[in-house]
User: What shape does this take?
Amino acid sequence: MEVNESEKRCYGYCSQEVTLLSFLEMCHYGEVVTTLTDLIQYFREKPRIVDSTAGAAVAMLLKDDDGDLQVLLVKRATRLTDPWSGNMAFPGGRRSKKDADLRETAMRETLEETSIDLNECQFLGTLNSLNSNVVQEMCVLPFVFSCDKTPKITLNEELCAYYWMSLDELRKSKGWSLMDRGEVPSYLVEGEVIWGLTYRMLEQFFSLISCIS
Assistant: This one.
């Protein structure tokens, strides 16, 4: 099943190919995803299409905290050279010519920014690649990982804070925030506004688990 053109424009898909992770397909097949174990099983059983045209990658790292599914988000430091300066984001960045593929990009950037070695975590799969509205020519592919234990984090100069955020609290916090560009859809947790590309990635992930029974 393929997402139609208006839905692609809304979510900013980079490629004409849409993976099996679109919420329309999830609901079409009546999938039920409730726990990290369910997610691991889902990704294991479903084929994924990796968009090799993307020029950047991020890592969505999950952990289970006594039944509460949490995701790692970082806050980018204020830097004039960073188009996402001060924003909440996932660890990641642009693909290097030395990277064998985009998964290696996500892993390298995560290690550089947070000191987390994703080789010690479980790779689950990918979401759909999305275009940035800030740097419109940039297409970003999210990779999903899970960790059995909370990794030690040391931030580099590109980041100023990190948060393990409850996905349940994130979903409940959904609303609107007034930013420089006007009022935008967002999540608001621990005083931090999550909007833009990171918001759209989370929306896509929540689509995956939207058919919880």
